[in-house]
């Protein structure tokens, strides 16, 4: 298989109160009290049509401050080394992030969203609607994450986030 290169241009910018990676929740489930906005560039605003009918959306973005790619990492939730593709660590061969967040409202080209676990100023590549029909799987295996106690996950997932409003 020959190597291919791809080029993408951002469709917008994500705005959050998170400026320091070590003080940013690691997943939206641990960022419930951290709302933010997504600014869609005017050239792409027409694509927001009908999105307001969805309660949740996927934000697909560039992990532009992730650091050098690695194939083995110690994930946030555990101290054991794991393969990068069995984690959600940001230092990936292709630094692409994805978060499912609640869509609160749309005002022009600005999306108001909740549960942001993304650094302020992150370039947005795409938005997709979350669909219960297509995206919800009840009986799943969660690999090594099943070994992590929920209390430990919640504590590690929040990291050193300052309280909301602070």
From TrEMBL:
<dbReference type="InterPro" id="IPR036414">
    <property type="entry name" value="YaeB_N_sf"/>
</dbReference>
<dbReference type="InterPro" id="IPR040372">
    <property type="entry name" value="YaeB-like"/>
</dbReference>
<dbReference type="Pfam" id="PF01980">
    <property type="entry name" value="TrmO_N"/>
</dbReference>
<dbReference type="InterPro" id="IPR023370">
    <property type="entry name" value="TrmO-like_N"/>
</dbReference>
<comment type="similarity">
    <text>Belongs to the tRNA methyltransferase O family.</text>
</comment>
<dbReference type="InterPro" id="IPR036413">
    <property type="entry name" value="YaeB-like_sf"/>
</dbReference>
<feature type="domain" description="TsaA-like">
    <location>
        <begin position="8"/>
        <end position="139"/>
    </location>
</feature>
<keyword id="KW-0949">S-adenosyl-L-methionine</keyword>
<protein>
    <submittedName>
        <fullName>tRNA (N6-threonylcarbamoyladenosine(37)-N6)-methyltransferase TrmO</fullName>
    </submittedName>
</protein>
């Amino acid at each position: 298989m020959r190597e291919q290169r791809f080029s993408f241009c951002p469709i917008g910018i994500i705005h959050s109160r998170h400026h320091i990676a070590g003080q940013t929740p690691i997943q939206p489930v641990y960022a419930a009290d951290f709302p933010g906005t997504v600014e869609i560039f005017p050239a792409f605003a027409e694509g927001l049509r009908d999105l307001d009918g969805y309660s949740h959306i996927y934000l697909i973005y560039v992990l532009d401050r992730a650091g050098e790619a690695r194939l083995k990492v110690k994930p946030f939730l555990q101290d054991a080394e794991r393969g990068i593709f069995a984690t959600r660590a940001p230092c990936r061969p292709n630094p692409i992030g994805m978060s499912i967040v609640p869509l609160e409202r749309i005002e022009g080209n600005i999306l108001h969203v909740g549960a942001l676990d993304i650094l302020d100023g992150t370039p947005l590549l795409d938005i997709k609607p979350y669909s219960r029909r297509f995206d919800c799987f009840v009986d799943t295996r969660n690999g090594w994450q099943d070994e992590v106690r929920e209390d430990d996950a919640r504590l590690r997932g929040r990291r050193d986030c300052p309280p909301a409003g602070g």
